Amino acid sequence: xxxxxxxxxxxxxxxxxxxxxxxxxxxxxxxxxxxxxxxxxxxxxxxxxxxxxxxxxxxxxxxxxxxxxxxxxxxxxxxxxxxxxxxxxxxxxxxxxxxxxxxxxxxxxxxxxxxxxxxxxxxxxxxxxxxxxxxxxxxxxxxxxxxxxxxxxxxxxxxxxxxxxxxxxxxxxxxxxxxxxxxxxxxxxxxxxxxxxxxxxxxxxxxxxxxxxxxxxxxxxxxxxxxxxxxxxxxxxxxxxxxxxxxxxxxxxxxxxxxxxxxxxxxxxxxxxxxxxxxxxxxxxxxxxxxxxxxxxxxxxxxxxxxxxxxxxxxxxx
Amino acid sequence: xxxxxxxxxxxxxxxxxxxxxxxxxxxxxxxxxxxxxxxxxxxxxxxxxxxxxxxxxxxxxxxxxxxxxxxxxxxxxxxxxxxxxxxxxxxxxxxxxxxxxxxxxxxxxxxxxxxxxxxxxxxxxxxxxxxxxxxxxxxxxxxxxxxxxxxxxxxxxxxxxxxxxxxxxxxxxxxxxxxxxxxxxxxxxxxxxxxxxxxxxxxxxxxxxxxxxxxxxxxxxxxxxxxxxxxxxxxxxxxxxxxxxxxxxxxxxxxxxxxxxxxxxxxxxxxxxxxxxxxxxxxxxxxxxxxxxxxxxxxxxxxxx
Lengths: 318, 305
Prior knowledge:
Number of strands of chain A: 13
CATH class of the domain at 71-292 in chain A: Alpha Beta
Helix content of chain A: 25-40%
Structural class of chain A: alpha+beta
Distance between the termini of chain B: 74 Å
Oligomer: heterodimer
Largest interface: A-B, 56 and 49 residues
Strand content of chain A: 15-25%
Structural class of chain B: alpha+beta
Helix content of chain B: 25-40%
Number of domains of chain B: 3
Radius of gyration of chain B: 35 Å
Largest sheet of chain B: 4 strands, antiparallel
Number of helices of chain A: 9
Number of strands of chain B: 8
Radius of gyration of chain A: 27 Å
Largest sheet of chain A: 5 strands, mixed
CATH topology of the domain at 71-292 in chain A: Alpha-Beta Plaits
Order of helices and strands of chain A: HEEHEHEEHEEHEHEHHEEEHE
Order of helices and strands of chain B: HHHHHHHEEEEEEEEH
Shape of chain B: elongated
Strand content of chain B: 15-25%
CATH topology of the largest domain in chain B: Cytochrome Bc1 Complex, Chain D, domain 2
CATH class of the largest domain in chain B: Mainly Alpha
Strand order of the largest sheet of chain A: 12-11-10-3-13
Number of helices of chain B: 8
């Protein structure tokens, strides 16, 4: 009885060891097959049928095929990850000027090919307390200097560049939405649906600095218009504002430029004079978007929604 | 740009053509703004500021800051949003007093400028009046501007000199010319001169250079001086000088932080992860060793098959 038991145990151990050895060998063989698949095809007599952009069916030698798209993509990704070294982009939003014109949102959605309900920047109606005056607050991504979102990404898809911009690489993103949960500002959106693209539009080379084309099952977020900054232009939202709400510039240079008036001022002076602040400062995220308080407003507040009066409770409104 | 379905595209095309036609007809033939009646007592207010060069120039700089974004550079209402044309017959036919009243009131997208002093608003009104006049009869003069740097103990001084160039190439110092001096930044020029910088009788302006301007990694700055005068063609000069503070450009690219990816993660994380991973593998290897030992022991005792 005892012997048999031991025998059985020995058996199971042996079979376990055998199977694990098999598994290991299988894994190595699999990796070998995979790596041989990714090799460039060598010149041979075979022809490959291809559909050109103009819709013609052509036959070409496999050796003639160059993976153009992948090369350009990796180039863009590399450039996008590095950023514009030597700058530290920052935005100042003057709440006293915002009139809810929503031109910033339209410009942003146009550039990043978002649907009307998707926002990289959103203008919110705010009221800090029942007795205080309501105001409009544009809310982009704050491009924090201590971003919680990049820490939780399991696949290195979202990252902070050397110029301070927090970007997302949709070629890497697996859609786990950890970053959405980590962001205290709700700055990130998830693409639940396949965007309504034509085949041609969908097959464009993915530009990491524009996050276009959008892809189902990935994250999209404000990019501080990294593609425009590379060209020396102000971001889409900043230059679309008709009311002079946005200032944008390089914190290291200590200069910000207004998108509407194109006036340039010292960043430190502007913040000091107007008692600038950042949102949820106490979280330690070090946001790089500053707000100037809504005092001496150029517009009267015209609410789209009614705010609660003193002594009124949400239930009262029905 | 989210495209319509192919099936709908025909209808869409016709629709957009129709929309375009309506758009053109609306803007071409009809003024899209509701009348804005002005009370009589406001209309009769007289403009106390004479439309001289000083007033027009002050008006222009305020117009550039506050009005240009919507009403456009030339006042045709072709700015970022749809705005009234300031050169139209309709607009120019009202009195200065009426325009001032409208500037005070504001309507819709147009904000109220009550916060600005009236004399500044009169300057803007003078400038807006000048927009509709065709400046064909004015022959623009030519000028050259040059920069001189003077570093005394503790104080840096900058001199911009404007000289008028006559037809025969003669250069004469130009007096009373507005000169803007600034430092080139990534998106624009940071002014270091005050808004009213007019040249003295020898055609010069002197500016004490502030010490707190940040340059590049060597403290180098690009200083730009430009002539901003209605009677002169635009002229500008740019010079590099290391008068700025050192820009700590790559101050964080090599710094380790938790939010960084792979290459620059903090040392404590790198060490604790490496130690953890190594110890897990050591345990696994130890267990494998024990398993092997058991097998050898079993073989020795001859209990296995």
